[in-house]
Amino acid sequence: MIEKISTGVEGLDRLMGGGFLRGSAYIIQGPPGAGKTLLANQFCYAHVRAGGKALYMSLLAESSARMLNYVSQMAFFDRDVVPSRMEYISAYGVLEREGLPGLLKLVQHELKRHDATAMVLDGTFVAQSVASENEFRSFIHTLQGVAGLAGAVLVMLTHQAREESSPEHTMVDGWIEMNYDTVGYRAVPSIQVRKHRGAQVLSGKHLLRISANGVEVYPRLESCISDMPPRPHPNTAVSTGLPDLNRLLGGGLPSESATLILGPTGSGKTTLGMYFVAQATEQAPALMLSFYESPTRLRARARELGFDLDRLADQNVLRLLWLSPAELVVDEVAHGIVQHAKAIGAKRVFIDGIVVLRDNLIYRERLPYLINALSLQLRECGATVVYTQECAEMEVDRAMPNDELSAMVDNVMVLNISRRHHTHQRYISIIKMRDRHFDLRVQPFYMGEQGLALGLNPKAAGPGQAD
User: Fold this and answer.
1) DSSP state, 232?
2) Distance of CA 313 to the CA centre of its chain
3) Which end of the chain is more exposed for a tag (fewer CB within 10 A), N or C?
């Protein structure tokens, strides 16, 4: 079995089924600014940290000193390994003087001299300008053989948009394409493994982030789901924190299920979720993610309801997360939720406001599949999940949601607000529950001094209120 060598980027390793194959050659293609140089350097330093030796050979006019000045700002840079284990070499002059034959000799010589097991050729397709098309293809083919004989990973970078049918793509073992698109006002970097011999890849485009840590890749969550059917739900229930609501639900929320709470602003969605996570214990920790209300504000609201979220957080049985709703990489958020849930062993997860996820998706039609994939991954952690979604005010008799998202969760509850006798009355409707008998009746509820309670608010009673 061919040894796999990490790319230095966890998400990219996942796309490639474990990383690069030793003794193989790869093309990384993309326009200027897509992150190719950064990714290549990140790979080299990760390879050195793992005990290997790496060479970075540039065919461009840019000096090694300038390259080092740029790379030294990154978190993965390690000055102590330069040049003993990580060597920067300029091949621009050799290419100009001796053409492809001279460049090929230099590559072979440096690989052997440094006993390197990783090598980057930056600007590979600049070499095409000094030779014919056939000579260039022969050069790429020979480089593939050089990598195999040396037992090294050879990564060739190019900014040229080579066609999918280009012969050089058939000669190398792998082809990775990086892009930097503009969608509306947003700049959206992406990566796609177009080819990888001997490995199962996660196909299609996946988003990435470029930061001081380097390139971070976030596979589309729905592409990470196993083909195996999920295991059956346990035949147990999880309390909502409200005994009356538990009775309507036939005992509570089914364990390891996913529930969607739909409702307009002010209908009580966040409050219901807070009741749910406030039941966290040492044996069943909880995770809450909010986009609109900070942990400080949530803790203050919880105190008004009689919950001490500060105590739960201090005891490490509740983790409160907050993210700004703007400019999110949704798959980064989703992977982060799963990581946090695994880290604390969460058995309850509350995500308040999936409209934020929808609005940050480049293709909004992904939302049902993303939520389904997120629910499945959290279910593997043993978690019961509650989501909320903002919607326009709905009449009680038209409460059935006509949204494909409802097909991606197990249970759906709808909250409504109606005006009765100069007051606002809230209602809750259980629309759907899988494998569970439940109360189909629309139920009034109110927010009183003791928190949320089912029934009509006695302090708001007026003529005909009890009708």
Assistant:
1) P
2) 25
3) N
